[in-house]
Design brief:
It is built from 10 helices and 12 strands. It is of the alpha/beta class and 322 residues long. The protein has one domain: Rossmann fold (3-Layer(aba) Sandwich). Strands 6-7-8-3-9-10-12-11 form an 8-stranded mixed sheet, sandwiched between helices. Strands 2-1-4-5 form a 4-stranded antiparallel sheet. A hairpin with a 5-residue loop joins β11 and β12. Bound molecules: adenosine-5'-triphosphate and magnesium ion (MG).
């Protein structure tokens, strides 16, 4: 297998909270192959966005990165100084943040917002060169060049999301992290935006991390899926294996909540309450909701282990296939 384009090792992030420390990301490791589309799914509060921000070292107080290392093409991001890291955002790894389509600057034209992103990253271009570059960029995300002169309120939701993708890819990053890029859009527009993201990913030869709730969308888009629960990865496997033979009881519950792949399933309907991160149970965090939990699960936190297939799972009860 070719070398990982992105490698995350034992990443840990916490938020200080008056009632206790919230361990939002608790020892997460995974890697991304070149051109791979990797999904991160898990219910609300499981730490998906925190992980995305931590990869880019964009965690602010009360949040804190407690540990872990991140490598992009073998370069350790966690060792870069603030300025080097700033330059690497967008150029190396680009984030389309959760809710970004609603955080476009309402009083600035789209073209100017892209120009600012380019300028921010040291691309000192003359106005005509800049305009030409933006006019070339917009069609790659399915927008007409004249969108450059428009304000966000003149765009539909889908167009705004495309503009956010344009900003993210303007420096041709190696990795794109898209955090719930389509959750505010209706189904038809969602598919169109995902198709655009897929095309952009292929054209750039980038790897993508798609963060989301929607298992149906994941099944259509990603090659491999990581399932997060209470700040940890509990299963990582090729999407086909996740859908047809999920190994973790939580993954099984998620897949069972999918009516069928043609119908859209959301991460709902799992019995029991999502855990309170600042007061996690001992042992496996999922055990209070788990139909097959035994004594060991109440005592010992399971580590992510290989199943002898392409997948890994963190469950005492999941057996390795021979
Ligand atoms: N700025 C913050 N201050 C304090 N706690 C935070 C902050 N951001 C996130 N958290 C806590 O960290 C945990 C993980 O949050 P995060 O936003 O990463 O989850 P998520 O999986 O992205 O959820 P969603 O699906 O709702 O976007 C939650 O318990 C949340 O309350
Ligand atoms: Mg989130």
């Amino acid at each position: 297998m070719s070398r990982a384009v992105l490698e995350v090792r034992d990443l840990r992030v916490s938020y200080a909270h008056p009632l206790g420390v919230v361990r939002a990301v608790d020892g997460v490791s995974f890697s991304l192959a070149p051109n791979e589309r990797f999904g991160l799914a898990g219910e609300s509060g499981s730490g998906k966005s925190t992980m995305a921000l931590a990869i880019l070292r964009m965690i602010h107080p009360p949040g804190h990165i407690d540990g872990g290392r991140v490598f992009l093409d073998g370069v350790e991001l966690s060792a870069l100084d603030r300025e080097a890291m700033r330059r690497l955002r967008l150029a190396g790894i680009a984030l389309v943040p959760q809710g970004s389509m609603n955080s476009l600057n309402p009083v600035m034209r789209i073209g100017q917002q892209i120009a600012d992103a380019l300028a921010d990253h040291g691309e000192a271009l003359s106005r005509p060169v800049l305009d030409a570059r933006i006019a070339d960029l917009l069609p790659t995300v399915g927008l007409r060049p004249d969108v450059a002169s428009m304000y966000p309120h003149e765009l539909s939701g889908g167009m705004k999301q495309r503009a956010c993708i344009a900003i993210a890819i303007c420096l041709r990053p190696r990795v794109i992290i898209a955090d719930e890029p389509t959750s505010a859009l209706d189904v038809v527009v969602q598919r169109q935006v995902m198709a655009t993201l897929a095309r952009v990913q292929r054209d750039l030869g980038a790897a993508v991390i798609l963060v989301g709730h929607d298992m149906g969308l994941m099944a259509q888009f990603v090659d491999r899926l990581g399932i997060m629960y209470a700040g940890r990865l509990v299963e990582v496997a090729p999407i086909g294996a996740i859908v047809t033979a999920p190994r973790h009881p939580y993954t099984r519950a998620l897949v069972a909540s999918l009516p069928s792949l043609e119908h859209r399933g959301r991460l709902q309907g799992i019995p029991g309450l999502a855990p309170l991160l600042r007061d996690l149970p001992r042992g496996c965090a999922f055990h209070p909701r788990c139909p097959i939990a035994g004594e060991r699960c109440r005592q010992e936190t399971p580590a992510l282990r290989s199943l002898g297939t392409d997948g890994t799972v963190a469950c005492h009860a999941a057996e390795a296939t021979p």
